[in-house]
Amino acid sequence: SNQTKEAVARKIEQELGQIDLVIYSLASPLSNDPVTGQAYKSVLKPIGDAFTALSVDLESDIVKQATIEPATEEQVAETVKVMGGEDWILWIKALKEANVLADQFVTLAYSYVGPKLTRPIYRDGTIGKAKDDLEASVDTINALVKDLNGQAYVAVNKALVTQSSSAIPVVPLYISLLFKVMKEKGIHEGCIEQIYRLFTERIYSGDLALDEQGRIRVDDWEMREDVQAEVAKLWEQVTNDNIDLL
Q: What Å distances lie between residue 95 and 26, 27, 41, 162, 231, CA to CA?
């Protein structure tokens, strides 16, 4: 809401003066348009065709095939409205107008790409469309804060256990296998370790290591060919009988 943005800006002004870093990281099932008040709901669905793949029921630990029906055009549009870049832009506008953004400030949005295994439900699905919109907002924000010498970036992060990631069918099984492989290779990171690396080795090191789309990649260890090959191999083997072992 506009009231929330105004309250945050006042608190920054009172307690901090100005800020030099804004992280935009959102996972939400719904939002209300701050102008019209209309409610929008996000969904985690594939686009075009139904998607069927192995998944794990986190309550029963049962491995089974999960089928998710495709989203309607309206559901795609609503997911982009909730999880896309519009609200990120509105936050930066509000903070700039309140004069609480420091010179040379940085704003980051967190995103995810993921492997072929999860692509139909994630990057090629409704949430992927929202992430595309979020990433496209970088140019708009950069133009908005050019006079402050500000910079917006998207950081593509590693698969991590969160309330939102556990709600996506197929993803919990993928993460379980991924963590096992990365731990064996000595390259596993939890949330804190990953964000520490993002700040120390990317944002504040002078070496952003941007990809072709201008994004910062800290999913680089997850997406290594040897890691993905081993995860794919385990994926073909996993059953109810061996899930605890694998």
A: 17, 21, 26, 28, 43
List pLDDT tens digits, range 13-55: 999 999 999 999 988 888 999 889 999 999 999 999 999 988 8
Which residues are paired to 30 by β-bridges? 41
Strands (E), 69-198: 101-111, 151-156
Q: Strand pairing of 19-24 and 39-41? A: unpaired
Phi, psi of 55 (to 5 degrees): -145, 170
What's the Cα-to-Cα distance from 131 to each of 87, 110, 199, 225, rounded to whole Å?
13, 9, 21, 24
Count of beta carbons in the 10 Å neighbourhood of residue 5: 18
Rounded Cα–Cα distance for residues 203 and 246 (Å):
36
Query: Pairing state of beta strands 151-156 and 216-217?
Result: parallel
Paired with 65 in beta bridges are 54
* Identity of residue 148: L
**How many Å apart are CA 194 and CA 17, to the nearest integer?**
29
> Tens of pLDDT along 77-125?
999 999 999 999 999 999 999 999 999 999 999 999 999 888 998 899 9
- And the tokens for 22? 């804004």
| Burial 33-71, CB ≥16 within 10 A → b, else e | eeeeeeebebbbbbbeeebebbbbeeeeeebeebebebb
Catalytic residue list: 122
pTM of this structure: 0.90
